[in-house]
Structure of DUF7770 domain-containing protein:
Amino acid sequence: MALGVIDRETFNAADRDATVTHIVLFGRPEDEASGPFAILHWRMLLQLAGGSSVTLNMIPQGRPSLDGVLFVRSNKFVMPPDAVDSCVYETACPLTVDAVLDFIERNNLHRYKYDACGSGCRWWCYCVLDDMARAGMVPKGSGHDYWEHIGALAGLDPMRYPTLRRGEFV
């Protein structure tokens, strides 16, 4: 795969015009075998008016490439049952799933490269949310609120919430 790939294999095209009511950033262990104190992988969830959701999951392709691939997945749940932590933001204007995906592509937020250790999911979530706030899609300061939330958790549990790692948009 190449940089900037958006994988829609598990996305139901009928969700394109669905109304997004909330943007949720949530963390869950990537590897359940790591136990209850595993480092969390963070994703973005678009909660839909009909009681379902779409997950936007930016993950590295895998060694040797650190290029991110954005997986777009339709879900039958509103909130993932295995989310360990989350931040929820109401949309500030009428939005559809298609509008969010177009925004991500138009602003090259799908062209993400993880850091040398393969880390950077929280940074990707923050940057997308912060750009959405500046565009008026979610309340102003949403990115800052998420950043503060993660920082507070890192102070309480630095093993589960290690120092923030930053990838880069290319």
About this structure: The beta strands are 5-10, 19-29, 40-48, 53-62, 65-75, 85-96, 112-113, 168-169. The chain has three helices and eight strands.
